[in-house]
């Protein structure tokens, strides 16, 4: 005798519209790292990058308790301010 359940069982069906080629499954290229790198080299952000690199050199040389957190935050703020409109423009 076969057991039956009072809870109905549903089975998923195969998707009706599968892509015909693998290109449709590929992720688009992420342009954010490239845009951020370009923004880091702008005239607005380059001095902040220089301050960050100088701080990193001091820390690597030792003898200081600096963390370079302030320099990093200033540089990243500049990069984000430059990159955000460019990244969002690419999403359209």
Automatic annotation (TrEMBL):
InterPro entries referenced in this protein's UniProt entry, alphabetically: Cyt_b-c1_6 (IPR003422), Ubol_cytC_Rdtase_hinge_dom (IPR023184), Ubol_cytC_Rdtase_hinge_dom_sf (IPR036811)
Keyword Transport: yes
Topology class, membrane: Peripheral membrane protein
Compositionally biased tracts (Acidic residues): 19-29
Alphabetical keyword list: Disulfide bond, Electron transport, Membrane, Mitochondrion, Mitochondrion inner membrane, Respiratory chain, Transport
Residue numbers spanned by region Disordered: 1-30
UniProt xrefs under Gene3D superfamilies: Ubiquinol-cytochrome C reductase hinge domain
Pfam families cross-referenced by the UniProt entry: UCR_hinge
Family: Belongs to the UQCRH/QCR6 family.
Source organism of this protein record: Funneliformis mosseae (Endomycorrhizal fungus)
Ubiquinol-cytochrome C reductase hinge domain span: 30-92
GO cellular component, one term: mitochondrial inner membrane
Superkingdom: Eukaryota
A Gene Ontology BP annotation from the UniProt entry: mitochondrial electron transport, ubiquinol to cytochrome c
UniProt keyword Membrane present: yes
Subcellular locations according to the entry: Mitochondrion inner membrane
Name by which UniProt lists this protein: 13923_t:CDS:1
